[in-house]
Amino acid sequence: MTNDPIPGIHDGAASVSLQEVSKVYRTGLGVEVRALDSVTLEIQAGQAVAIAGPSGSGKSTLLHVIGAMDSPDAGTITVAGQELTTLGESERTTFRSRIGFVFQRFHLLPALSALDNVAAPLLPLKVDFDRHERARDLLAAVGLAGRERDLPSQLSGGEQQRVAIARALVNTPRLLLADEPTGNLDSHTGSEVMGLLLELQRNRALTLLIATHDTSLATKCERVVHLLDGRLIDEEHAE
Ligand SMILES: Nc1ncnc2c1ncn2[C@@H]1O[C@H](COP(=O)(O)OP(=O)(O)O)[C@@H](O)[C@H]1O
Ligand SMILES: [Mg+2]
Last residue of some domain: 147, 172, 197? Predict the structure, then answer.
């Protein structure tokens, strides 16, 4: 892992710009699924944006192409001033390491304590700070002070997602992508986790994109964009 800076990504929250982005999946029998259909979207640095839409509308695909986990077939994506299509493979890896991801199923390592799960992304990196001190600070920031030694199996679903959120922040990302982060939680816990993500976005110079099919949670974000069959359909701005 290199320490090469991606311009802009650590200088403040990242802006995100998509110009006519399309992604087509081809399945075995030559059937084409247009997962993203000419999506044009401007997200300002520091915004909290919900990507709303029913299952299969392209929400995950949108987050994957913005996070450079997948490449679009057409169009351009610019994050913090960096156009992703111009990056080589090692630059894409560096870019990904500077973005925070939160998933529906937490993806914690079951044999590691909460503290070690949070610190894990830092292990391959040379850093000039104490890894465990940073992990401890982040666990406190997500409301889990005192739970550092607990294994994931000793934590509730909501607590596990808080650990996953702390882990996503350990590399000080300026863009946080959350894919159905409340999808495995009851509605009360899901609402708390949503509140935590928005609090972190406001306090830590983060741009936050949350994919969700839950419209009541989506409207807690300052901006909601709607996807249907891979197309952006309309947009509401909260007051
Ligand atoms: N790897 C893949 N191969 C083939 N089709 C896929 C793949 N990933 C997603 N799709 C299809 O693309 C469409 C959008 O999927 P997705 O982005 O996962 O939607 P959402 O997250 O909104 O449920 C769906 O029709 C889905 O079946
Ligand atoms: Mg999805």
Answer: 172
